[in-house]
Amino acid sequence: MKAFQKGYVVAILLAVLTIVEYIFAVNFDNELVKFVGLSAAALAKVGMIGAYFMHFMRIFKTEEAH
Amino acid sequence: MWALRTLSGGLGMGLLFFYIGIGLTAVLRNWFGYPEVWDRDFNVTIGYVFGLLGWVMGMGMWGSWGREWFGLRTHSYYIRGWQRYFTWSTDHKVIGVQYLATFTIVFLLAGLMAMLMRLELATSGLQFFDKSQYNTILGLHGILMIAVAVAAVVGGFGNYFVPLLIGADDMAFPRLNALSFWLIPPVALMLLITPFMGGLEVGWTAYPPLSVQTQTAQGFWNLAIVTFGLSSILSGLNFVVTIIYMRAPGMTWSRLPMFVWSMFVTAWLALFYTQGFAVALLMVTLDRIAGMGFFNADDGGDPLLYQHVFWFYSHPAVYIMILPGLGIALEIIGHFSGKPLFAYRYAVGAFLGILGLSGVVWAHHMFTSGIPNYLHGPFLVMTELISIPTGLIFLSALGTIWMGKLRLTAPMLFALAVIFNFANGGVTGIFLADVPTDIHLQDTYFVVAHFHYTIVGGEIFAMFAAMYYWFPKMTGRMYNMKLAKLHFWWMFIGFNVTFMTMYWPGIQGMNRRIADFPAAMDGINFFISLASFGLGAGFLVFVGNMVYALFWGPAAEANPWGARTLEWQTSSPPPLENFDEPPMVTGHPYDYGLPDAPAHARFGPGLPAGTPAGGGGGGGG
Amino acid sequence: MAVAATAAAHAHGHAHNRLQLNRVGLWLFFFSESIVFGLLLTSRFFLMGVDREHVDQQLGLIITIILLLSSVTAFTAETAIEQDRRRLASWMLLATILLGVIFTVGVGFEWSIAEFNRKEVFGTVFFTMTGIHATHVVTGVIMLFLVWVQLKRGKFSSRDHFAVSGTVMYWHFVDVVWVFYYPALYLIGNVVTPGQ
Fold first, then answer.
1. What is the predicted pLDDT for the residue at B225?
2. Do the beta carbons of residue B493 and residue B425 sit within 8 Å?
3. Stretch B480-509: mean pLDDT, rounded?
4. pLDDT tens figures, B365-387
5. Residue A64 has pLDDT above 60, yes or no
6. Along chain C (196 residues), what's the average pLDDT of each consecutive run of 10 residues?
7. Is B476 found in the same domain as B428?
8. Same domain, B48 and B150
9. Do B416 and B541 share a domain, yes or no?
10. Range of the domain at B22
11. Least-confidence region, from B340-349, B457-466, B591-600, C32-41
């Protein structure tokens, strides 16, 4: 179950970030602030997806050979 | 008849899918209410995508790979004899030979086109071709030679010898390797039919807006290049994984032969940058067939975007071409100098430095294109910084030659010529990297001479060095060394006379890419044409020598050169699994003339104590 | 008979860690693909700065959430097969396929209501970027479907499921692309109407 839970926590974080992105973008006018904020949010999301959904660290694992 | 069966399968499926594709497109166009169901570029593009899929599937991808996607049993066969070269073979040695044979033919064809161009340029005025015919020949010569330079050494010698040099039994992804090769014939087909489909008029760079507006066979050309890029990316991926993970036990990074190092860097470049060419031409294709406006300045597009994206690939591409050449030169100089390779670590560092710098210099091709002035300085400096790692490679080569006991065989002569020619090309490059001189020299024959010195003088000479060096290993036969040396001197002198002279009209401002020139330059152009015909004739010696040796040459020993590296420690040609017993690397590849240096490798089970692990940090073996 | 099976000939070919090679190869493929997407993204900023034209914000948010949901189902499918829970994996693959199809339909609907045409520069950028992304979504749906068929035929287990993980990784990669494309096309900068 633990493996599932970790993924769902990440998914909730992603959803929250997405909504925050949206509200932030709709309500702010400053182009520079928007650019920096949205880029930071996107990078954070990609980091989470890469680490927890795509399991980046598994490429360094060797012991699973059959 | 396996060859016939496979080829007819590939051609049949390819044509079938092609016609299904264009038919489907016509139906859809009708359905979506287009006024005409047939638009050549549009229908052929979709049909080509279908046809390409049918071709590779019919060639054998379906049987060995595609069935797996549907949960069916796959089958792979090993075919002996000459027919395996015409089938979906996953053996890296077969694929290497397929690449080499294909690109040798393409090289000779494109060379013939260079002869035709020089024929036209022998005197001013138009004698043999009209301007659009000349443009077609020019564009085809350019792109075919680019293809040769990108893929002949990487695909040919890289495929054949990287696994051998690192002690692996094959590439990491053999089926992907076969796919990379079998994507090439459609590329060749699409390029070679362009003269009959309206010709080309944009040269190999295909700058918009002309490439968007032209009514010639530009669409075919775009498809060919995107496919070629795909093939190049896939083989780059394969090399990266192979070199990281398939090394034999004991083959540490500091024992890797120079050619493998250069291929490693090249593979990263191909994997990282080739998309630029494909994306640039995808944009041109979309502008052409879907009416989009990337390069349409009327609606906010910008033709300069193309040049940025295009040169983002095409400048690193020259390193994709030249680095394996320099790797081969260092490899051969290392084996024929009778002493250890000088400054091995610096040379490796140089390759890595070029990998890092190559991506930040592209706009030096665009100094006269109207880029903002503030970009001139940074790109000038970055471009000239590249001469530092390049200089380290010269350091390694010259330090190895210095006081060495040189064995001047044909491969060694070619390798030495690489160093000589590339130095010339590098020095003249400085004038093109400097903005003030470049503004004068841009698009003149100075540029033509410069890049022929780097690419032909650097890489093509290295390709011949490798051919003469590895021919006995690949075919098991020996060529005539006297004829090989004759070919060397003929090509070396012919090449230098042709292109050294070409700097002169360039400095005078003679434009490249144009069928005609002012009558005042008649004399020097006539001389260049004569010299280039001489250069071209020299390849007859090469072809004759190779064809004779292939069928009637004396049998070659396993190690005719007395070289230390792994590929010479197995039979000529190597068996299917490369080594009868698994190799273990115990020493440096270039420790010549050192009395107590351990052998580069030994064979058989059981590691000697203290052998470092090979690929994959512990997998290996 | 000049034919022999390759398996016997490549005697010591299986000693390498095939799973690790496949994973690294797949990551390098993503790396290489991300250059394609990155170049298109850069072209968007090169051509227009951060300006954009009006797009339907609600629709954009909805399809983004759908893609995120499909990521969750794909993740569940992969984790399920790792624990040999085949029934759950099968349903989750189907859910992912369904969400992928809904996403594609959403993009198609977006195209049909777009207030710009493909000749002008924002249209060019928008249709190309969403189009090439949607192409990848469709490819992913096809791959997921093929994996699902194999799962139904009894393939895959906790020990051998690279086809499932690889396809799911590809699906997440397509999601990663959208993580950049969504703000770049819908949120960044301020609305500029052409001609002003």
1. 93
2. no
3. 95
4. 999 998 999 999 999 999 999 99
5. no
6. 35 61 94 95 92 89 95 95 93 96 96 89 93 96 95 88 93 96 90 64
7. yes
8. no
9. yes
10. 1-73
11. B591-600
Q: What percent of chain A has pLDDT over 70?
A: 92
Distance from CA of B112 to the nearest CA of A (A): 48
B140 in the same domain as B111: yes
- Write out pLDDT tens, residues B43-61: 999 999 999 999 999 998 9
What's the domain count of chain B? 2
- Here the ipTM equals 0.92
**Cα–Cα distance for residue pair B90/B306, rounded to 1 Å:** 37
- Do B132 and B262 belong to one domain? yes
The pLDDT confidence band at residue B613, using thresholds 50, 70 and 90, is: low
Contacts with B246 from chain C: Cβ below 8 Å: 16
Cβ neighbours for C131, distance < 8 A, ≥ 6 positions apart: none
Distance CA C8, CA A36 (A): 57
Instruction: Note whether C184 and C55 are within 8 A (CB).
Output: no
| Nearest CB partner across the interface for C10, out of B79, B170, B286 | B170
Answer for the pair B582, B605: CB distance below 8 angstroms, yes or no. Answer: yes
| Two structure tokens written together for B146 | 């680019």
Helix (H, G, I), strand (E, B) or coil at B578: coil
In a domain, B108, yes or no: yes
pLDDT single digits (tens) B510-530 = 999 999 999 999 999 999 999
B68 and B93 in one domain? no
| A62 Cβ under 8 Å from any chain B Cβ | yes
Residues on chain A bordering chain C, Cβ-to-Cβ distance under 8 angstroms: 3-4, 7-8, 11, 14-15, 18, 21-22, 25-26, 29, 31, 34-35, 38-39, 41-42, 45-46, 49-50, 53-56, 58-59, 61-62, 64-66
Are residues C79 and C98 in contact, defined by beta-carbon separation less than 8 angstroms? Answer: no
In a domain, B615, yes or no: no
Where do we find the tokens 């093509």? B460
DSSP conformation letters of C130-167: HHHHHHHHHHHHHHHHHHHHHHHTT---SSS-HHHHHH
On chain A, the residues whose CB falls within 8 A of the CB of B618 are 62
Which conformational region is residue B60 in: left (phi greater than 0), alpha (psi within -120 to 50 degrees), or beta? left
Token output for B202: 């944009």
What DSSP character marks residue B364? G
Place of tokens 């995808």: B282
Q: Which CATH number fits domain C53-187: 2.60.40.770, 2.60.120.10, 1.20.120.80, 3.90.1150.10?
A: 1.20.120.80
Q: Which residues pair with B601 in a beta bridge?
A: B585
**Spatial CA neighbour of B512 closest among B146, B140, B138, B111:** B138
Test B616 with A65 for CB contact under 8 angstroms: no
The percent of residues in chain B predicted with pLDDT above 70, rounded, is 97
Kindly list the domain boundaries of chain A, sorted by start residue: 2-60
Q: Give the angle C52-C57-C62 at the CA atoms, nearest 5°.
A: 135
Q: What is the pLDDT of residues A23-51, one digit of tens each?
A: 998 888 888 889 999 999 999 999 999 99
A59 — contact with chain B (CB < 8 Å)?
no
